[in-house]
Amino acid sequence: MYYNCLVNIPKNTGKISRNKRGKTTYIEYTYAREYLPEKKYNVARRTTIGKADPDHPGMMFPNPNFEKFFPDVEIPAEGTAAEPVNESRSSCIRIGAFSVVRRIIEDYKLAEHLKRWDDRGKGLLLDLTAYSVIAESNVAQHFPDYAYNHPLMTPQNKIYSDSTISRFIREIDDNDRVDFLNSWNATHDKNEKIYVSYDSTNKNCKAGDIEMAEYGHPKNDVGAPIINYSIAYNMTNEKPLLYESYPGSIVDVSQLKYMLEKIRGYGYEKIGFILDRGYFSKANIQFMDSCDYDFVMMVKGRASFVQSLIMEHMGEFESKRACSIKAYRTYGMTVKAKLYTDDDTDRYF
């Protein structure tokens, strides 16, 4: 993948070479030399950092390797190449699903939460959001095809190439994400009693050397490193409150405390939590008690203390009309008991 712009071919480095293949001259960078004892000489380790522009001597089209080995060189805006990006649009624009997504963006005033972004950045980010929802894809290479026949939110409905999109996504840093979440949560009523549903999942990653991808406990183990990510949202109005990602080796049960501290940091006070059984642990329950948080937590049905409660109350609820839960066509009851031996609080089961 080569960027649609031109940069100067690095000079006087002693590590730049040209490799002509067919009609194209590739610019290669020697990043290391390896000595081979059996042959008693060094072998250069090279990688391609761009391809020469025949119309502009001394200039080349860079690729991502150029940014890796020459991070101080600024990559100009795309469109300065001999063959500019094709910005033609389809004569038939598909507006249906886009109108729904744009209405949601406007109703939640998402653009206003991107305070540090210029109009180009806001538009492109929101376009990528709409693309991921409508096309059910996050493949950057397919975005230009989507943009060809869909409305866009970038100024002048500009279509950006997949290389520009890849670079744009790489430039989004943690500060951008934190600023957005701070601004988003600042608009919510902190005095309202809410219940926060929190859950996480993991994604197998075969993309190569990614620091966050680590071996852990995936739901679908294919022998690959994983990345964990989670989301918390308000059960009352179903609005998301925060999302986060963390290394694959960190298990769910140890991540809950950090999420609770984040929620508290946003200023929410009258809150309760609805949690999956993956967060069930004595330490987590004690921490929520210390914060005076209400919570509903799923437990494993075959846990010994659950089985003992069921056996203790067997015959008291299975056919009683008062215990009928019509929505689920089943029967149930609530009982008080202690969760663990030294528990000083009666829990509802």
Automatic annotation (TrEMBL):
InterPro entries: Transposase_11 (IPR002559). GO terms for molecular function: DNA binding; transposase activity. One of its GO terms (biological process) is DNA transposition. Residues 208-338 form the Transposase IS4-like domain. It comes from the Bacteria. This is Transposase.
